[in-house]
Every structure is written in structure tokens, then in C-alpha cells.
Design a protein that fits this description.
340 residues; alpha+beta; five-stranded antiparallel sheet
Length: 340
């Protein structure tokens, strides 16, 4: 998970603790808008522009700390104690026509991780109010949330990391061992278009999403989508009570609509097919899961979105074939293999 959060820049991992981390400070959204969005604007982060527009202006450069290709935001405010200025990751599965939804930066003040975290947390608290600081597994964290937007501070205290593991970035810049990592999550989701709103209002459910792979309805509204899925994710508005945790489509089958951790809408013309993965019990418990293959504006052939799963290796095959027949698309049912 940490590798995903930091785009492959996972500091040395270590033993887990029993902690699930401190609760974030939840900031109210008032008549003047989202307070985190106002902060991101004040920091001059280009979170409202299409990614391709920002990339054309900023270019792609090699980050000397983690030896990655990144997009540095030259006009963004420079964090105090900056080791790495604000930047956005580069990935072929990020939609070029939609905004960047995640920015990161790194700061360092002292040779002590806890002091760095407290220093940066105090700086931000002066702008938007305080947030609790506490341990989360082998890290210490501090978070603010407003709607689906978030701001996270994280350190990896050296004394809580596994011994004997190495990180080449620490050799290039030893201060990274105790630095504080800042992560901005904008929570961007496209609003429903008039056509999509009509589809959702006419939604006809045909299946439920397995509850292990969804969220409570009140969490869906405030959970940011993955940056690799924002072309399909939509702001659910007031539709969650009748669409949450369900799979279906409008009467004219103009779109596949489903709600897992997000409300997803895939127009019929962008549905390329369905895929069933089947696993027999081995080291893992076995089971099956169903995905939909989608057309995408990204420079890849397609993308897959998760629909549902079952503990039975053949538990989602019938649904996959039924959806494929409804949308007149293929359904690939994979061979049974060991869950290792």
C-alpha cells in the first residue's frame, strides 16, 4: 500500500504495530467552499487543469532523490524545509484529459522524524487548524480531510523500521530517513452530466456488489477515487441510497453503472468486455472476481474496473456472462488456477 501511495517510492518497510492510526481532522465545508481546496489554491497547485496541459507547461524531469520521472510544479508554493518541491507522478494509466488528483512534497528540518512531523503539522495547523498526530504501523501520520479531499503528513521513524533492509534513495540523501512526506489528494470527481443523471435515475439493479469489496454509503461520498479510475468515477450526489453497492444499467442499456467504493459509469460504447478470474483454494482461500474492460483516453489498450467477487470459484461466472450478453460484448472466463 505504501508503495502505491508514494508511486514506487516506498521507504524501507518495517514491522506492523496494532495501530490503525489517529483519526483525521474533519474540516467542515461551508458557503465559501472546501477549505482544503482553498489551501491547494493558495499553494498554487494546478489541480483544476487537465494533466496534459500541466505536463506541456512543466515538462517531465528526473527526480534526483528517488530516480523517478516526475512533473515538478515550478509555480507552486515552496514548503518550508523543502527537500523535494511539489510534484505529480507520471504513469501511462493517468488520464491526460482530466486533472491531476495527487501531489507530493518532502520537507526536513531536524535529524528526528517526530520533530519534523510536529514542525510541519504546526505550520499547517496555523492555516487550517490542528490535526491529531499518532502512529500507524511503522509510520507516524497526521491528516486533514474535507469532503473527499485530503492532506497527509507521514514520517518513517528509523527506529521502527526493519533492520538490514536498504533504500538507495537514503544513500543519495540521508535526510530522507527522517523527512516528512506531504501528500495532497484533491478528491476530484466529474459531476454527473445531464445524460448520466438520467441514466442513474432510471437505474435498474441486476446484482449486488460483494460487501467485502465496497464501502458504507456515508464513506463512498467522502472517499477519493484512484487516479487511474477518474475517467469513470462520478460524484454520487444524492443517488447513493438507490445505487450504492449495486450493479446495473438504465432500461436502454446505454451504460454500465455500478457502485463499489465509487459510483462508476461506463457508457455502452466504452464497454469492451468482461473478464472472470477463478481461483481454487491453495495458500489463499480461492474464489473468483469479475471485472469490466473499458476504453480509455490513456495511451494503453484498455483498463479494467472491479465489479464484484465471490468465495466460490464459479460464483461470478453467470453474472459475467449475463452482462456480456446484455451489452453484446465478450466475456472471458479464465482457467481455474491456485490461489497462491
Amino acid at each position: 500500500m505504501l508503495k502505491w501511495l508514494f508511486g514506487g517510492r516506498d521507504p524501507v518497510s518495517g514491522p506492523a504495530s496494532d495501530s490503525t492510526g489517529p483519526l483525521p481532522a474533519r474540516l467542515p465545508i461551508g458557503a465559501d467552499g472546501n477549505p482544503l481546496h482553498r489551501l491547494f489554491d493558495a499553494w498554487h497547485l494546478p489541480w483544476r487543469e487537465p494533466r496534459e496541459q500541466v505536463e506541456a507547461r512543466e515538462g517531465i524531469r528526473r527526480d534526483s532523490l528517488y530516480d523517478d520521472d516526475v512533473m515538478f510544479v515550478r509555480d507552486a508554493a515552496v514548503p518550508p524545509g523543502v527537500l523535494q518541491p511539489w510534484n505529480a507522478g507520471i504513469f501511462e494509466r493517468f488520464a491526460p484529459t482530466l486533472p491531476i488528483t495527487r501531489f507530493t512534497a518532502i520537507a526536513w528540518f531536524y535529524g528526528d522524524a517526530a520533530s519534523n512531523l510536529r514542525h510541519m503539522a504546526a505550520d499547517i495547523a496555523a492555516l487550517i487548524g490542528p490535526a491529531p498526530i499518532g502512529p500507524e504501523y511503522n509510520t507516524d501520520v497526521c491528516r486533514w480531510e474535507a469532503g473527499a479531499a485530503g492532506l497527509q503528513l507521514m514520517t518513517w521513524p528509523p527506529e521502527r523500521q526493519s533492520h538490514g533492509l536498504t533504500n538507495n534513495a537514503f544513500d543519495r540523501e540521508p535526510r530522507l530517513r527522517t523527512a516528512v512526506h506531504l501528500t495532497v489528494t484533491t478528491g476530484f470527481r466529474l459531476p454527473l452530466s445531464l445524460r448520466e443523471d438520467a441514466w442513474v435515475r432510471a437505474f435498474q439493479p441486476v446484482a449486488l456488489v460483494n460487501m467485502q469489496r465496497t464501502l458504507p454509503l456515508d464513506r463512498i461520498a467522502v472517499t477519493a477515487p484512484s487516479e487511474t479510475e477518474i475517467e469513470y468515477a462520478r460524484d454520487p450526489g444524492d443517488h447513493l441510497p438507490h445505487i450504492g453497492n449495486r450493479i446495473g444499467y438504465p432500461p436502454d442499456v446505454a451504460a454500465l453503472i455500478f457502485c463499489t467504493d465509487q459510483l462508476f459509469i461506463v457508457p455502452r460504447e466504452d464497454v469492451l468486455g468482461f473478464a472472470v478470474t477463478r481461483m481454487r483454494r491453495a495458500k489463499g482461500a480461492g474464489g473468483s472476481y469479475l471485472q469490466v474492460r473499458c476504453r480509455t483516453p490513456c495511451p494503453v489498450a484498455d483498463k479494467t474496473l472491479f465489479l464484484t467477487q465471490s468465495p466460490d470459484p464459479d460464483g461470478v461466472t453467470a453474472l459475467g456472462r449475463s452482462l456480456a450478453a446484455t451489452f453484446d460484448r465478450p466475456c472471458e472466463v479464465g482457467p481455474l488456477h491456485d490461489d497462491i
